Amino acid sequence: MLKIDNLHVRVAGKEILKGLSLEVKPGEVHAIMGPNGAGKSTLGYVLAGRAGYEVTRGTVEYDGANLLDLEPEARAAAGMFLAFQYPVEIPGVNNTYFLKAALNAQRKVRGEVELDSMQFLKMVREKLAVLHLKEDLLNRAVNAGFSGGEKKRNEVFQMALLEPRLAILDETDSGLDIDALKMVADGVNAMRGPDRAFVVITHYQRLLDYIVPDFVHVLADGRIVESGDASLALKLEEHGYAWIAQRKLADHPSLRQA
Amino acid sequence: MDGLLGEFGEGDALARAENWRYSRQTLRALEQLPFGMADGTSALPQALIERFDWPQTRGRRLVFVNGVLDAAHSDTRASGAMIDRTVDGACAIHFHGDDALHLVFANIPAAAPARWNAALHIRAESGRARLIEQHIGTEGTDVLGALTSDIAVDGGATLQTATLGDLPGSASLYRRTRITLGTGAGFDSTHALCGGRFQRFDIAADLAGEKAVLTARGVFALRGREHVDVHLDVRHAARDTLSDVSWRGVADGRARGILHGAITVAQGADGADARLHTRNLLLSPHAEIDAQPVLEIYADEVKAAHGATVGQLDERALFYLRSRGVPHAAARSLLIAGFCREAFERIDDADLSARLDSLLDAHMPQRADAGE
Questions:
Q1: Domain of residue B215, residue span
Q2: Does the N terminus or the C terminus of chain B have fewer Cβ atoms within 10 A?
Q3: How far is B328 from chain A (nearest CA, A)?
């Protein structure tokens, strides 16, 4: 589904990703963990197609096509979704209007019939219930005046509504209390299935108690330095990221000099 | 006197030159046109009728074609307004009501460029009066309308006005309003100005009575070579008066928008609270927005706040919408409309809100003229 090979990305003249490789197959949940500044959010943004993220080397294939050739909206229509670490407040733009425009634009590209208002509202109400979100959210402006937790739940709500095939969650757990964290995890778990994959970017192991990943990767200094199963996250929790850095230094003399 | 400037401009030559600084050239270009008097008997096309035939204002509507009452489309008697002629033959509309009135000014071009004039006299004596003013037209040769109004809101009364400028590219409008507010009077105005070749609004309000309150919210959303020039002149002349002006401007293409907001707090008008805020979006390197708040304060105990910003579209918000699948052009329109709509958030009339929304939607700058 997603195949990232030796990806190098520069942001504002500085190289952030330095040869990242990752393969995600349908049905899998991958967790990407790593210290601050490792390049976790850069990975999310470059996959979603944000401007200013310059790919200097490497390839990203999505369903066999070159993902990097696609505009952000085309990636969305192809089934990709990024839950933002910092969802953007857009005053004046109504949530319902925006979501209907987004969903129908995606459906149009895919050659599916666009939903009318009644069909759309029915779908929206079902998804709201799953995330324990109040209906008044729909009449508000996109993320405007939302609390941190509301913003994150709104991201997961959007994901539930748009039903992507590959969802990237960028620190969706940060700033959430335990109840909100469980709601977010429930929302994700409800969507897990053989055709859908998740890349869960997180700084803490806590989220992975609720969204149990198939694979855990450690991202440090712009590349994946360690991969394992869910137990790797627990080891990281116990030993900290320094433990990985030390082990890598021992393994790779070249890194010791850097 | 010198042409249109002599006619529309006020004060001495220096004051006129200053007040028309940004629109002098546009006015000069209009002056070159061989204007005749507009034909007030032109037929209204069906498409135009549909634009003002709001179910909510049936029975309360007056329609003017090139400044002349179109009796066939007007509820002349039911509206409660009186219409006569001024000495120079222009229509004068008198309304002393505590009800709603929907005024439609339609610009219908003829073979040659044409002008019309009309005057409004409004007095709100009690209760809550509402005035909706809609400027529409069909594309063709140039039409220049001039509409002046004097408005008095007596003590305890409230007048709400909404002005919807929805003009074709060949129509221009000069619009002057003089407002006097009595003790405890309220005046609440909404402007949505789109389209047209040239629109100039001179709005002068005198908060003459204690505790008078003026609220003015407005938007201009411009594209192509549209040119809108708004001059607000608010004078606090009595104690404990409040004025709150908030304006949003958007200009794309080679459009030009001007908001000059002058607030004067006269000597003795202690306890005055004056707020003027304008936020603007510049969408093209060839567009221009001039936002000028001017405060003059001669009283001691005064609260005054003002601010003006001119910025560009938020790239983060644009990416956010696109990442959800909204195509670039649509995302841009959504953001621009949202920016404008914020100015109208506090309008409690759902029908009017919807009308304003669709007016803005119809005039959203398109990707095509952004790159001009």
A1: 3-370
A2: N
A3: 8
Tokens of B83: 């219409």
Neighboring chain A residues of B319 at a CB cutoff of 8 Å: 48-51, 72, 88
For residue A44, what is the nearest residue in chain B, using CA coordinates?
B323
- ipTM value, please give it: 0.93
For residue A227, is it left (φ>0), alpha (ψ between -120 and 50) or beta?
beta
The CATH code belonging to domain A2-257 is 3.40.50.300
B76: alpha, beta or left, given left = phi > 0 and alpha = psi -120 to 50?
A: alpha
Count up the domains in chain B and report the number: 1
Nearest CA in chain B to A89: B317
Q: Where are the alpha helices (DSSP H) in chain B?
A: 3-8, 13-19, 24-31, 46-52, 315-323, 328-341, 350-362, 367-370
- DSSP for B253-279, please give it: TT-EEEEEEEEEE-TT-TTEEEEEEEE
**Domain spans, chain A:** 2-257
Residues of B in contact with A140 (CB under 8 A): none
- pLDDT tier for residue A163 given thresholds of 50, 70 and 90: very high
Nearest to B63 by CA among B149, B144, B136: B136
pLDDT digits (tens, 9 = 90+) for A169-200: 999 988 888 888 988 899 899 999 999 999 99
Tell me how far apart the alpha carbons of residues B253 and B228 are, in angstroms, rounded to a whole number. Answer: 14
